[in-house]
From TrEMBL:
Entry keyword annotation includes Transferase: no
Domain Aldehyde oxidase/xanthine dehydrogenase a/b hammerhead, chain residue ranges per copy: 23-127
Assigned keywords, A-Z: Molybdenum, Oxidoreductase
Pfam family name, one: Ald_Xan_dh_C
Source organism phylogeny: Bacteria, Bacillati, Actinomycetota, Actinomycetes, Mycobacteriales
Keyword set includes Zinc: no
UniProt region (Disordered), positions on chain: 527-549
Domain of life: Bacteria
Sample GO molecular function, one term: iron ion binding
Protein name according to UniProt: Xanthine dehydrogenase YagR molybdenum-binding subunit
Amino acid sequence: MTLVEPKVIGTPTERVDAHDKVTGTALYAFEHPVDDPTYLYPVLSTIGRGRVTAMHTADAEALDGVVAVLTVFDAPRLSDTSDAELAILQDPEVHFRGQFLGAVVAESPEVARHGAGLVRVDYEELLHDAEFRSGRDDLYAPEEVNAGFPTDTEDGDVDAALAAAAVTVDEIYSTAMEHNNPMEPHATVARWTPGGAGPVLTLHDSTQGVHSVRGTLAPLFGLEIEQVRVIAPYVGGGFGSKGLPHAHNVLAVMAAQRAGGRPVKFALTRQQMFALSAYRAPTVQHIRLGADTDGRLTALSHEVITQSAKIKEFAEQAAVPSRMMYSSPTRYTTHRLAALDVPAPSWMRAPGETPGMFAAEVAMDELAGACGLDPIELRIRNEPAVDPSTGRPWSGRRLADCLREGARRFGWGARDATAAARSDSDWLVGMGVASSTYPAGTMPGSVARIVYRSDGRYTVQIGSVDIGTGAWTALTQIAADALRSPLDAIDLHIGDTDYPSATVAGGSTGTSSWGSAIVAAARAFRDEHGTSPQSGAEASAGTPENPDAENFALHSFGAHFVEAHVHRDSCEIRVERMLGVFAIGRVINARTVRSQLLGGMTMGVSMALHESSVNDPRFGHVVTQDLASYHVSTHADIRYLDAVCLDDVDEHANAMGSKGAGEIGIVGAAAAVTNAVRHATGIRVRKVPIHLDDLLPD
């Protein structure tokens, strides 16, 4: 693969959108100005399962300022109801508490909310089932798990290998339900206008993929793709929750059909986000490891039970990383689901790897202890020469380098000396380590267009989205190097379906996919127009197929190091230091990549110590519905935090030699915290988040 010659790529470039963001001129979805707007507030179900028998709307309709009221009995009909999560207001069935049953559209947000509160709903209530537990008798195997992976795999006789192993680990690990909670809630502005070929729907949406939203909504409303335009120049975070359109998009579009041609603005409240956006399902994971006396794995079994929803299946692929992470001659992985009367789970930063690697990396720490080995040495001894799941050679696997470099930087050699702190301080001190990995893929389907202007500048268009990760800047850097021009000669245009198609910002594939399309378009431009183009010269190209993807195992790797302090009396846990060392190919922008890695690491600490969406199965809803009761890590929770990247170029990954950085930072981070707490206290906790009472003596 011919790589782009890096000149601007790799430099710690300031964000090109920084000025607009800090001055408040960068417009997010709900802020977009439209003429004569109306505002929507939803009516939500208050039962976990059943049927609506009546909706009393007279009081709301009589309220001054109310424009329209929608219910399950009179809402516009959808042309496609195959996706049950999106087919809202099409029948009176209630599938979960917090489901959309209607909406009030009014002249102001306040009137809309007042009106929604006046709508009374009568139900035929049925017994609901919203309790996730591992001992259920209705667990089932999905046809496949997220991202198309096989549900189960088996290589060799694991049970026999475990019976013969010199050392074994056999434990249950669990992770909590978590909600994404980006700073900007899910929001959209929907507007219908007349068009020559039929009505035109325009959405200003908070989304990770404008073309994904258009492609999903158009058939729902019987529209051609060209009749829908989606605009999202700035998005205030997503973490996967905005990777797909959700029911709020559909409700806003329906409401706009009833608003007499006026635009409808709709933003979920923070409380509504806990039922209507997306979340990471809880898991219970059974891991069995067998090893010889030297600590080399002879058996690996990873069985996962997780939650799905009756309304829509989603299977978190938590056991998949165990299929490729370490070498073992026998291996067994499974996934089983509990389908409940709850909202559908979906993507949350590094789905699969985040919960799966928590359990796997804590289990590896336990195995190291059982073998009497340093946890880093154990991992290095189990390095596979090729990808165990495919047999392909690694395009680049520098996990051992990450572990060794991190140990050097972190002072791992002094780890045993921290035990002295247990006897002469109020704070117990421990160090923990965990490995990290994430696939380094490129998604097909993105196209870039390049136009040369009379002022000597290039207009680069691609319908990608920057969800806060720095895509505005990284893609500008890639275009500058690919066109062999200065950075300030590039005018990037993204976040609009009027630009060429682009894949979603997800799976850590955004920069790889969009950047590859930009490089291909730049090469096509030079081939067609040479080095002295005329004004108006233009070229387009899509993300090329990567033949190396079929011949090499493409993954990023990393290592987390944590120093945790635990108070002897109160059991308060503080993360005093945290370091991440990563091999993610060539870094496009050292500044924004570091921010991405630090953000992921912070989210991992949050998973380990704070985040837990508490479900009350009696009512079928999450009771921690705000950021006061649903805790997330902040600056005060980590005293010292750093992330470094190895000097690394993966020539098999893409034309930039880069790999994604958005998700690998969270993978393994919670395990490193948990392992550090174990080293400090001697108490092994096998669930997250860790509670103070988990560390109390028996």
